[in-house]
Specification:
Layout lengths: L9 H7 L6 H17 L6 H8 L3 H7 L3 H24 L5 H18 L3 H7 L1 H4 L9 H20 L8 H16 L10 H12 L7
Helix pairs in contact: 1-9, 2-3, 2-5, 3-4, 5-6, 5-9, 6-7, 6-11, 9-10
GO molecular function, one term: DNA-binding transcription factor activity
Keywords: DNA-binding
Protein name: TetR/AcrR family transcriptional regulator
């Protein structure tokens, strides 16, 4: 399996837009992650991140950019780290439908339990919204591109007609984001079994449109 960012998809391009990975950039992003986890986005500034990273404010701006750029870079880094875990969780499953169900369960569980992303979604959903919707750019496009690429690969592997799966991938990502941002629902999604049943009943039928 190709590492995230090396498969030519929107995921690859979105990850390629991140600041180059080197020791200083990672130091700044580590500091931003800790700052956002500890104080949230609303109460954090670029100065706070610079102080925690033991660098100047100018260095943060030159290396990463504004506060919004820091948040986007942090989210993309965390996202790229768990993409391979999700791939590993579904790789051995025999059908596109099975992989979709297992992938939806893995993504929802991972993000809910993630100390940065899940924590911010619980505490500051209104601030996180722009970073997880189409208007945010990189994070949304990375998620949509990753899923579209996996659906396209499954079409080929299973001999299905090759159609553009991007609209279906976008619907699935938007559904996932809506549950993460607002968990109050008539659907019971409290454990993996319930999440899997939801995915099989409501998401799998979308594959017929892909």
């Amino acid at each position: 399996m190709a590492p995230p960012g090396e498969d030519g998809t929107l995921l690859g391009r979105a990850l390629a837009e991140r600041p180059p990975s080197d020791a200083l950039n990672e130091q700044i992003l580590d500091a931003a992650r800790e700052q956002f986890m500890t104080f949230g986005l609303r109460r954090s500034t670029v100065d706070d991140v610079a102080k925690r990273a033991k660098v100047s404010r100018v260095t943060v701006y030159r290396r990463i950019g504004s506060k919004d750029s820091l948040v986007s870079a942090c989210l993309l880094r965390e996202y790229s780290r768990f993409v391979m875990d999700v791939d590993d969780a579904v790789a051995a499953l025999p059908t596109m439908e099975d992989r979709l169900v297992a992938g939806f369960v893995a993504v929802l569980k991972h993000i809910r339990e993630h100390p940065l992303v899940g924590g911010l979604l619980r505490l500051e959903p209104e601030i996180m919204l722009p970073f997880l919707t189409l208007e945010s750019g990189p994070a949304f496009l990375a998620m949509r591109g990753y899923l579209a690429d996996r659906l396209r690969r499954a079409q080929r592997a299973e001999g299905r007609p090759e159609t553009d799966p991007t609209p279906v991938a976008e619907l699935m990502v938007r559904i996932t984001v809506s549950f993460l941002l607002n968990p109050v629902s008539c659907f019971e999604l409290d454990d993996d079994e319930q999440v899997g049943a939801f995915a099989r009943r409501y998401l799998v039928p979308l594959l017929s449109a892909a």
